[in-house]
Structures are given as structure tokens and as C-alpha cells.
């Protein structure tokens, strides 16, 4: 048994080293890397759930091995002799009922607690974004930011050549208010580890049409519509650009100013280009070409 244990430990060590995974990657147990505080909470629930499942699995595997190794039929055993019976062992039966029940209750408690933390909303978020989905495009409005040079709300809408850019700050509480003008869509950024359907009729919506999160990593993250919504559903993408708070404030300020070349307020791409802050401020998102989604044929309000 001692030799078997050493061989098993060595095999486990070799398997771990052969994967080339870091300690953090091992503890993720396949859970993808998130970019929000809420995603981290879900990750820890997953990690501890898997560890608990592995502990239970090791105990069960050990009992199976013990039963098969030490309670197998002996060579000289009397064939008429029955093994020891446990069907009337009350303590064992209570153990087999109470322990699984306690495990389920503990798992439910931590699941419900994590869900409440992920769905929690502060009364006064730092940034509010109105997200409008329509076939087959997105509109992002900033209702609580200063108005642009024409007195209108800062707004970003995609077109057939460029998907819309949703620029957000890191380290701030952001609220997303979702609505649709036609059919059911779904707002999904894989790195958020969160998805919520966008309904056209608020009075018929059986779920909360808003949620909050806090982005804790800078970068660019592709967003998608995750609800089949028509011909160009697969092209209905957008990009989240997470900037440090100081760059986000600079971006908002530039959006309120007029571009001398066009005589119109700066677009999202023009504002990012004017910031000149490297890869993080690349002005253009991923293009939809060669697909022509005819996005200009409809507007978010029509």
C-alpha cells in the first residue's frame, strides 16, 4: 500500500507538471478568467464547489477500493456463510441521509449568497449606461454624463462597417439599463461571466432589466447578442473598451467637443483617436465586413 501511494503521488505530480499550468490555473478547474468583481465571486464558488466534490469523490473512491480489496471472497470461505449485514444499522442509515442533506444545504447557501452578491445593485452607481438593442445593432447612451456640443446625450451606434464601441471606466460601479425596440436580444460579454436577455416590452418582462458590475481589468472585450434574433444575429456584436478612470473622463470630455473636420461632435472612434494612448485607445473596433448587415436602415428609436 505504501508503494502504491508513492506511485499515485508521483503520477499526480507528473500530470500536474505536464500540463504547464500555474497554481492559479489549477485552482480554476477550467473556469475562464473574468474581468469583473462579480466574475471573481462566481469563480471562488466554482473553485470551492469542485474542491468539495473532489473530497467527496476521494472518500467514495477510497471506500470502493477498501471494500473491493479487503472484503472480497476468501479462497477457503464457506460458500453458505453470508457476509455481515448492515440493512438494520440505524446509525449508518442516518449517516447516509443526514450527511448528503447537509452537503446540499451548504452548497445551496453559498450558491444563493454568491448569486445575491452578483445581482446586488447600489442605489447610486458611478456610471449609468442605457443599452438599446435592435435588429441588428446596439446603441449605448450615457444619460448622466455631460451633453455633447449639440445638447444631445452622448450616444454610440454601430454601422455596417464598424461595430459599436462601449467605453467604460475600471474600478467604478456601472449600471446597465437594457431595452429592445423589436425582438428579444441578449446582452453578453463573455469576460463578464454574465448574460441578460433584452426584452422589447418592459411590462411583460419577467426579469430585472438592469444590472451592475465593476470592471477591474483594462482591455478590449467583444460583446455579443446571445439570443437568436434574425438573419444577422451572428453579426450583432459590439466591443467593450475598459479604460482607467482618468482616460475615461478624458474620453467623455472629448465626446462633448466638436470635431473641426466634420463640424459634428466627436464619435467614439474620433475621441479615442484623439487621446493617443496606445493600443488601449485604438479607434476602431472589429469590422463586420465582408458582411453587409444594413445597420443604417434602422435606428434604435424606430
Automatic annotation (TrEMBL):
Which reaction is catalysed here?
4 Fe(II)-[cytochrome c] + O2 + 8 H(+)(in) = 4 Fe(III)-[cytochrome c] + 2 H2O + 4 H(+)(out)
Output the InterPro entries linked to this UniProt entry.
Answer: CcO_II (IPR045187), CcO_II-like_C (IPR002429), Copper_CuA (IPR001505), Cupredoxin (IPR008972), Cyt_c_oxidase_su2_TM_sf (IPR036257)
User: Which UniProt keyword terms apply here?
Assistant: Copper, Electron transport, Membrane, Metal-binding, Translocase, Transmembrane, Transmembrane helix, Transport
Give the membrane topology, semicolon-separated if more than one. Answer: Multi-pass membrane protein
- Where is this gene product found? Membrane
Q: Which residues form the Cytochrome oxidase subunit II copper A binding domain?
A: 124-254
Instruction: State the source organism's domain of life.
Output: Bacteria
Q: Which Pfam families match?
A: COX2
What EC designation does it have? Answer: 7.1.1.9
- Segments spanning the bilayer are 47-69, 90-112
Its job: Subunits I and II form the functional core of the enzyme complex. Electrons originating in cytochrome c are transferred via heme a and Cu(A) to the binuclear center formed by heme a3 and Cu(B).
- What family does this belong to? Belongs to the cytochrome c oxidase subunit 2 family.
Identification of the protein by name: cytochrome-c oxidase
Q: Which organism is it from?
A: Amycolatopsis acididurans
**What taxonomic classification does the UniProt entry list for its organism?**
Bacteria, Bacillati, Actinomycetota, Actinomycetes, Pseudonocardiales
